[in-house]
Amino acid sequence: MTLRLTLFGITAGAALIFLGGFAWTWRPAIPPINLEDHGDSDAKAIWRGAQLAAIGNCNDCHRADTGESYAGGRPLPTPFGTIYSSNITPDAETGIGTWPEAAFKRAMREGVDREGRQLYPAFPYDHFTKATDEDLGALYAFLRTQLPFRKAAPANALIFPFGFRPIVAGWKLLFFREARFQPEGSKGDAWNRGRYLVEGLAHCGGCHTPRNVFGAEKGSSSYAGGVAEGWDAPPLNSGSLAVHRWNADDLFEYLSTGWNRLHGAAAGPMADVTNNLGGVSSTDVRAIAVYVASLSADSGDTAAPVQTNKIVATSEVRAIYEGACANCHRDPNVVGPSKAVSLSLSSAVRQWSAANTVRVVLGGIQARSGAPGAYMPAFGGILTDSQIASLADYVRARYTDQPQWADSLKEVSKARQEGSTP
To answer: Is residue 205 domain-resident?
Structure first.
């Protein structure tokens, strides 16, 4: 009888917690509006909204596979299945054309759509909740100016039971706190502005902070490194893997152009970030750089290792390196037209896994459209999986003092399956 009562009590308690959590997070639908009811927005607000959309990389997630801006449908892989980004154009049927501003702000701050449905935290409202009314209003005004495009997002493909949206209510109880940004009086204006953007709309921690088994960011390990679209997002805090400590000037150049002499070129998802920031006001990019540089202020420069006798490589791998890599990456003091830097400076080669190195070798680095920039050809169509894995291991041994990777071949196979090829 005692065991039965105990089990009954546990079951009843769990049910009450679930129902209480659902009731606490329940939100009613917000009535739709007609397209003509939007009213007019001033040009300054629309311009500011465009800047904020670029800072938040909104179109990178919400661009349709056919190229239409903000039309959604991009697959976002998660440990729980695939989530497809929504259409945020002002289309009345499949977008947010009938959303009043209050519904948009609720989605951004609370993770609830106009109809009252819980939004999955792949949409980073845990960061967007920090944004001001003025900035969310400007972002809303900008999105209303976009070309309406009728395109419904595919149904999410989530592992059971994660397709049941009310589960998100429980996740929010555990991990989500709605809160506005509060500046620190002891810091300067640039630092506070940078922190507001980095922790808010830019949601840098979404990639650069590790996550727990429930998919929530580990608050105790902020900016300690994470994973984004199969790439390793390096630590931004004092655990930075960079040979030279990032300072605000170097970061400003890197974020604005996608390249810096002491750190190399942006690749993977970070290349999209720098492409967007290249069109953002220098004041905001500088503020972001000031704040991010402060996160690793306690780290110091690490002497770049030179070639040692520990390197064990076949003649084939050495020949591949000499033919494919050495002409651009040989000299640590010379940067040629491709802007290749010495591999001794590469954070990718110093990462805890081979993911970034093999993905760069597979897909290369494309120069920014319409502007000079770093460039590297793709070798995915030339080299075999084993050759790329061996090459990655070779440069790891030659240019760092870190232990050898054990996952190089696995990462090559994974990257090919995910489409990281030219």
So the answer is: yes
> pLDDT tens-digit profile of 87-143?
999 999 999 999 999 999 999 999 999 999 999 999 999 999 999 999 999 999 999
Please name every residue paired with 217 in a beta bridge, in sequence order, or none if there are none.
211
DSSP annotation of 415 = H
Q: Residue 157's beta-bridge partner residues?
A: 82
Q: Within 13 Å and on the Cβ side, how many CA atoms surround 254? A: 20
Same domain, 291 and 195: yes
Could you check whether the bond before residue 161 is cis, i.e. omega within 30 degrees of 0? yes
Is 263:345 a contact under the CB 8 Å cutoff? yes
Supply the pTM of this predicted model.
Answer: 0.90
Query: Does 148 lie in the same domain as 213?
Result: no
* 268-305 pLDDT tens trace: 999 999 999 999 999 999 999 999 999 998 766 665 55
Would you say residue 45 lies in a domain? yes
CA nearest to 140, candidates 105, 115, 174:
105
The range of the structural domain enclosing residue 195 comes to 189-295
Q: How far is 211 from 228, CA to CA, in rounded Å?
A: 11
Q: Rounded CA gap, 121 and 268, in Å?
A: 22
181 in any annotated domain: no
Instruction: Kindly state the DSSP code that residue 115 receives in the 8-state scheme.
Output: T
Task: For tokens 């917000």, name the residue.
Answer: 30
Q: Is residue 6 part of a domain?
A: no
The predicted structure's pLDDT at residue 422? 42
Query: What DSSP designation does 38 have?
Result: G
pLDDT band for position 421 (50/70/90)? very low
Q: Which CATH number belongs to the domain containing residue 351 in this structure?
A: 1.10.760.10
Q: Using an 8 Å Cβ cutoff, are 287 and 193 in contact?
A: yes
CB 381 within 8 A of CB 297: no
